[in-house]
Amino acid sequence: MPGFETIVRPVVFPNIRPVPTRSLPPEDDPEKGKCTIGGGGGGIIAVTENKSVSGSTHNPKEIERTVDQARVHQKNDDGTINEENFVDIEVANKIKMKVGARPGGGTPFTGFNGDDVVKTTADRGYTGDDLIENYRYEPVKEKDNIKIKKKNIIKKAESA
């Protein structure tokens, strides 16, 4: 007959808890996986930045203009011209403008030299003479419905 010990004796099972993780030995290369930040020394890095802005104004004033007077008659869709319906116009051929003195000459106005220079209160050099520019335009042409009444009429500006 079996003994009391075999019946009542508790059964001991192996440990059912997970085994703690083992610490792994270091890898062969201890520098593997590390980042090394290096530099070129303690020098200063200078970044230069330059900006330049310039501007000029050109305010010419009209002195006189040369115009042609013309009469433009109504032209119908069928090509006939209605002599009773017209408009009188003035077409500029040439406009003379005073552009003022240019300091020190230069492009496009040349021909200044050191003898021409006069000092002003602003201490800027210029010749003292105002420059005149002529702007020329295409003259009006006669057509079947355009009649030229007068040519080359010179009109002086009131402010000149």
Structure description:
This protein is mainly beta and 160 residues long. It has a domain of 62 residues. 3% of the residues lie in helices and 35% in strands. A four-stranded antiparallel sheet has the order 5-2-1-6, with no helix packed on it. A hairpin with a 5-residue loop joins strand 3 and strand 4. About 11% of the residues have low confidence.
Summarize the structure.
The chain has 160 residues and is mainly β.
Indicate the percent of residues in helices. Answer: under 10%
Question: Which secondary-structure class do the elements indicate?
Answer: mainly beta
Widest sheet: strand order?
5-2-1-6
Order of helices and strands: HEEEEEE
Instruction: Compute the CA-based radius of gyration.
Output: 49 Å
Helices, by number, come to 1
Number of strands: 6
Please report which band the strand proportion falls in: under 5%, 5-15%, 15-25%, 25-35%, 35-45% or over 45%: 35-45%
The termini sit apart by: 147 Å
The shape, in one word, is elongated
Which stretches are poorly predicted, pLDDT < 50 over at least 5 residues? 104-121
Major pleated sheet: 4 strands, antiparallel
* Mean pLDDT reading: 77
